[in-house]
Amino acid sequence: MPEEVGFITMAGPKAEREAPTLGVGILGYAFMGKAHSNALKKLPYMMYPPVAVPKLVAIAGRNADAVREAAKRYGYQKAYTDWRQLIDDPEVQVFDNSGPNNIHAEPNIAAAKAGKHVISEKPLGRNAEESWEMWQAAKAAGIKHMVAFNYRFVPAVRLARELIEAGKLGRIYHFRAVYLQEWIADENFPMVWRLDQSIAGSGALGDLGSHIIDLARFLVGEPKSVMALTKTFITERNADGRREKVTVDDAFVALVEFENGAIGTLEATRFAPGRKNYNSFEINAEKGSLRFNLENLNYLEVFMRDQPREIQGFTQVLVSESYHPFWKYWWPQGHIIGWEHTFVHEFHHFFDAIVNNKDVRPYGADFEDGYRNAVICDAILQSARERRQVDIRYQA
């Protein structure tokens, strides 16, 4: 583990403790850069006492003016226009990659070889091959590595996992999940990097589908095979006065068979008018069912077959009690939290793994999980392309 930069001493009611400071360097200052920076700043005083205190050492991006402005806005001490300088900075112990998909592999591998712990946005790679290379580099370097599948850190989703682990649902029969957004449904929406295969790798599949694939693995288990369709509804977009070809899927739907015998469906699209960030799943099992919707993320709907028949039905559980996952750090019951808080939980988990030498898995997703996710994404694309069922095969 890299040498610690410093310590903050805190007096608690029982004893003094020291929280190590971890120097963080982040690549990217837009949507995910903002979300990650917000979480890093909240973590020390909300996840209290902190397992570690993040020091915002440096931020990197291509546009010099924009990255300097981001450093000022978020409180990073240094701004770089070359991510290599950020990784070479001796004060950076944790490399946080929130950049576009095409700049995941090279910086993540370089950071791992430099002995930096790495947390990377999803999807880990544009395909399974890239993701495999990142996992192998991180494993060889002996660093802690994590993929930012932040929906594992929604209290209601963690509660669902705990109910399944405790055997409350029994054998799982069905998992069906959809992730629906609307933001590119307008045919006049311009060409952006998420619509370019060379940058994004895939479209709705990698952007949204990777999240529900991760939730399927997190809650149900490993998929055995997939059968899928993909569709690109608008094949060209405007780009600075010219037309450019859209080279990724706008939507996909897949049938999934799991190794444990469960079956499921996965669907994602960015062409669902009225749906803003509708990540929803339902699990049907031997003893009951669970239902979740990210747009109402403080609730988990639960049905148990052993309820008296007079009152049987889905119960909407407000996951905000002190005994619910993560809630001891937040507010009194019923005072709900939001999407941005999942990143606070995520970084707390990652820093705990670093400081106390714990495994990121099973509650966090490491680079092996990122690789397996990419294998499933590739299998979905292969199935759609070849119009056949495809088995999931991982490298050892």
Can you give a write-up of this model?
This protein is of the alpha/beta class and 396 residues long. It folds into two domains: 145 residues, NAD(P)-binding Rossmann-like Domain (Rossmann fold, 3-Layer(aba) Sandwich); 238 residues, Dihydrodipicolinate Reductase, domain 2. 31% of the residues lie in helices and 27% in strands. The protein has ten helices and 18 strands. The chain has a nine-stranded mixed sheet. Strand 2, helix 1 and strand 3 form a beta-alpha-beta unit.
Low-confidence stretches: 1-16
Helix percentage: 25-40%
What is the N-to-C order of secondary-structure elements (H for helix, E for strand)?
EEHEHEHEHEHEHEHHEEEEEEEEEHHE
Mean model confidence by pLDDT: 95
Largest sheet: 9 strands, mixed
Structural class, judged by helices and strands?
A: alpha/beta
What is the count of structural domains?
Answer: 2
CATH superfamily of the largest domain: Dihydrodipicolinate Reductase, domain 2
Radius of gyration over alpha carbons? 21 Å
Number of helices: 10
Counting DSSP E segments of at least 2 residues, the number of strands comes to: 18
CATH-defined architecture of the largest domain = 2-Layer Sandwich
Which keywords apply here?
31% helix; globular; disordered N terminus; single chain; nine-stranded mixed sheet; Rossmann fold; seven-stranded mixed sheet; Dihydrodipicolinate Reductase, domain 2; alpha/beta; 10 helices; 2 domains; 396 residues
